Amino acid sequence: MADRANIAFSGSPIERADHIRVDDDALAAQMNWRARVLRLDGLNPVFDDSGALEWGTLADVPETAELCFLGLLDGKACFAPVPDEGATGPAYANPQIWSAMQALQPGELATYGGARSLVDWHARHRFCARCGGPTKLAKGGWQRNCSSCDAQHFPRTDPVTIMLVEHEGRLLLGRQPRFPPRMYSALAGFVEPGETIEEAVAREIWEEAGVRARDVQYVASQPWPFPSQLMIGCYSVTDDPELTIDTTELDDARWFTREELEAARAAGDRGTDDLIFPRSFVIAHHLVTWWLDR
């Protein structure tokens, strides 16, 4: 895929600096007047006058605040504060999130996405899953330790397969109930315990559309910080196009010809009478574009 560098939430310019995370003295030395703290309104980004992410200093946050070390940018340590609570509703219902995805430069969007995933996890894991005791931030925010039983907890990323299915020059796309009218996208679903990526792709396509997929191949991936997923983009083919749609998952699923997809892409955000092309900030856009252009 030629434009992988343009996939939303990828390509943060921050150096993660793991060697500092694991060294308490080195981390403490970074907490000085030069350090930068990402300003957040809860989990939402705060913009400066130029429309970029706004950064403050350590003096702007309470001494009791939990701070996650994001890494180094231009030699300066970057931190993000843990909010009082984590996400309480679906990200797609938050207009500030959609505005950020369209307004921020790619590197800044990746920085925000990584910070959001991390601090959201901390806000939702203040108590131990083993004993219920309180936990405290460790390793600069890349771990939490239980104060009661010494259990260690680590930020999680949930793998999700998102996939194209082709049959004789047509692609299968589906629409979820929350989608705007005429908007279709690639089918997707979580990888379950004990599954390979290829098995998850085949299972999800069968469960959602009643189609047996084969020859699964990886194409590209996208971090998706709502709350913290890794979208694993794949491509597959099928020999039988007959659909049996799981209406508990999808409103509809359809086969689209190359001509229909090309027309929808050329029409931009308004789409055609039948299809709005997936938005540029979701990996489905890049998967369908890859298929059309290869």
UniProtKB/TrEMBL annotation:
The keyword Hydrolase applies. Keywords: Hydrolase, Magnesium, Metal-binding, NAD. It comes from the Bacteria. One of its GO terms (molecular function) is hydrolase activity. It catalyses: a 5'-end NAD(+)-phospho-ribonucleoside in mRNA + H2O = a 5'-end phospho-adenosine-phospho-ribonucleoside in mRNA + beta-nicotinamide D-ribonucleotide + 2 H(+). It is an enzyme of class 3 (hydrolase). Residues 155-282 form the Nudix hydrolase domain. Pfam families: NUDIX, NUDIX-like, Zn_ribbon_NUD. Its EC number is 3.6.1.22. Its cofactor is Zn(2+); Mg(2+). PANTHER family: NAD-CAPPED RNA HYDROLASE NUDT12, NUDIX HYDROLASE, NUDC SUBFAMILY. NCBIfam families: PRK00241.1 (NF001299). Belongs to the Nudix hydrolase family. NudC subfamily. This is NAD(+) diphosphatase. It comes from Altererythrobacter litoralis. The lineage of its organism: Bacteria, Pseudomonadati, Pseudomonadota, Alphaproteobacteria, Sphingomonadales.
